[in-house]
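tmp note - Endoribonuclease L-PSP
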Amino acid sequence: MREITTDDVPAALGPYSQGIVSGDTVHVSGKTGVDPDTGEAPESVAAQTTQTLENVAAILEAAGTSPDAIVSATVYLTDMDDYDAVNEAYRAFLSEPYPARTCVEVSRLPAPLDVEITVTVERDDG
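out:
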């Protein structure tokens, strides 16, 4: 098991790793849409989703892989009415075949944000 860290995303808010490589699998902890340069998140859920996926991509890059290798994702929304906006941003960022995915509404997230995403990637070291 190997920890993945990068300064290209905001630091973890608790006692957990940004990502873990275990064998050929990369597990990325839940990321949000906080911009690492400003420490702020965009107001719209679509822009938060895009920034969240950019943060996930930075961790995957540090692990030697990319969003194209995502096999599953879990999306946490504070309002399921944002589902369509999240899907639009998600679709624009990822490509087919899309990862397997679960999307659930939660009462709140650790920071006052609208979306959090965690992913699992299977690395192909060829």
